[in-house]
Each structure stands twice: as C-alpha cells, then as structure tokens.
Predict the 3D structure of the following.
Amino acid sequence: MSTVPKPLGLLAELTHRCPLACPYCSNPLDLERRSAELDLATWARVFEEAAALGVLHVHLSGGEPGARADLEEITAAAARAGLYTNLITSGIGLDAARFARLAEVGLDHVQLSIQDADESEADRFAGMSGAHRRKRKAARAAVAAGLPLTINAVIHRGNADRVPAMVAEAVAMGARRIEVAHAQYYGWALANRAALLPTLAQVEAVRAAVEHLRAEFLGRLVIDYVAPDYFGSRPKPCMNGWGRQSLNVDPTGRALPCHAAATIPGLTFWSVRDRPLAEIWERSPAFEAFRGTGWMREPCASCPRASVDFGGCRCQAFALTGDARNTDPVCALSPLHGVVAEARTEAAAPAEAAAPAEAAAPFRYRRHRQAAPA
Ligand code: SF4
Ligand code: FES
C-alpha cells in the first residue's frame, strides 16, 4: 500500500494572461502563451481525477482567470467534481453578469487582490491606469452575487505604511476577510526585490497595525497576516511540505509541487495531458525529489524541526544559494543565512535617506516574453 500522503488542495493556473503587470507576481519570468493553455475538457478531467485522489478544494488562479472566456464552464466542471471552488482574481474583466453566472454554476468563494488603498499608487503598482476603480466595482459585483469575498493585499516597501487604509478599503468593499501578506520573493518579486523589500521598521509597524486592527474590527472582518520570510529566524513550512498536501497544474498542464518549482533545474515534470493525476502525484520524479525528509542535508537532517518546517522552501534555497538541497537560507541555522541578512541591509540603506516610495528602484513589470526587458 502506498505511503504517499493524499493532497487536499489543487492550484489550477488557468492562464498566465493578465491585464495587470504587478512587479511582485509569483508567476514565472517566462510566461506561457494562450495557444499552450489546457482546454476545458482536460481541466474537467483533472478536476474529476483530483477529487478521486482526495483533493477537497481548488483555487482557480492565473494570471487572471477571468481572461479565459470559458471560466464559467471551468468553474462548473470543478463544482460538478465536488470540489470547493475558490476564484483568485484581480477583478479586471469580471463584471456583474459574470459574477452572477459564476455564483450560479457553483463558485464558492472569491479572493480579490488590491495593490494599495491609494488609487494612483495602486494603479502604479498594478501597471494599469484605472485598475483600482475597476476592482472596487468588481468587489461590489461579487458581493451582490452573494459570493463571500476575501481581499488579498500584498505588502511591500511602497505600500507598507497604508495597511490601516487597506483594511478600511476591504470593509468598504464588503469583504469578510483580508489577507495582509508580505510579498514572497520568487519570480517577478525576486527580480524586483531591491525595490520591494521593506525595512525592519516597516515590518514591525505592519505587525503592530495588524494587531491593533484585529481588535478594532473583531466580529466584522477577519484579518490574516503572512509574515515576511526575510525577517524571521526560521523558515515557513513551504507548501506544508513538498508533495505532501497540495499541487499546482500550470496553464500548459505540467503538474508542479509548488508554483515556482519549474525554476529549479533538473526536475522532470509530468503533464496531465499524458498521465492521470494520481500517477503524477505518487510517482513523478519532481514530486519525489523533495518529499519527506530523506533528501535533507545538514543542518536540517538532524534538526528537530525537520518534519515541522521541512527545511523551508526549496525554490528559495535554489534562488538564493544555487542548490535546492540546501537549507532555506532564511533559517538562521543555515551557513548561508548571510545572503538574507545582506538583502535586509541593502533594503534599509536607500529607504533611510528618502521616503519609501521615492526610494524604490524602478520596477521591472511583469510582461509576456517579448515585452520583458532583456
Ligand atoms: Fe528548519 Fe532546517 Fe532550519 Fe532546522 S535547520 S529550523 S529543519 S530549515
Ligand atoms: Fe517552491 Fe517554496 S515556492 S518550495
């Protein structure tokens, strides 16, 4: 009998297309084209296979999932498979009629991102004029359709001082929950780290603001907080362990243990176009690569936290140390922890001399391949 744990969650990256260009997007730097995307019938099969494997909830994500004209049919297929369906959206491209239809076909929940509470700054971070106004409209439409709404606010140097205003904005939008989440430095965010990493003073101020706001909005709004990796001394248990609880399927059909796994060289990813999801989950080389604790080196191998945080994040270990088998350098026990400390020091230097937004280096905006700078 297989000892491989069963997954609970599936992140379905329906498309990399998106009208926004956020400089902290977790999508890969090489974005997939529309012509390479999985079709509706394949997604429907994947949802059935996921449910049979034990998956309980699916996150319909992107890019912007609303960029797919068949989002309603895809959502209906996920609901038919018996999955709890959560739509992760920028809100752009989804009007009242589309939200009403999504609710009708069985969508359970909406997570809508905001970039800031200040309209012009929000539009600057999104790389799209008028984006924030359209998000306000989309939020109203989602709530009017009877859908529970969570606001996602990604925090970085440029907006960290406006967390109370973002919480107020979430309340005004009719949300029941807000996730105040520091940016995670993968993909485009890593490329923009010098412009995005907050100072220690900002991190402490955000934490204090969240505590205060939780008391103020008790019973009206749930406030979740995601701490910044770079300011801790122990890493997060990324994905709750590689190949342990969840999986991603990218727009082309590749099954990945996490959204950034393709950045790690040498991993072989199997596709849902070629194989059933159960076979991929249980036997694919990429899922096997870092499953459990057997692959670990010191200091993780003999650490009492090995099966608590699983050595942190493999993608971050690769991005910052060049080897995915290393301890995540966010851990103060890592011999390479200095790379994280250096990034913090670099972030603090320019921000002390000028206002945070002015101090920010220019962004490298998320664009499709031919538009990205060399
Ligand atoms: Fe976690 Fe490894 Fe650090 Fe121990 S040494 S706390 S297992 S990352
Ligand atoms: Fe890939 Fe953390 S993002 S393991």
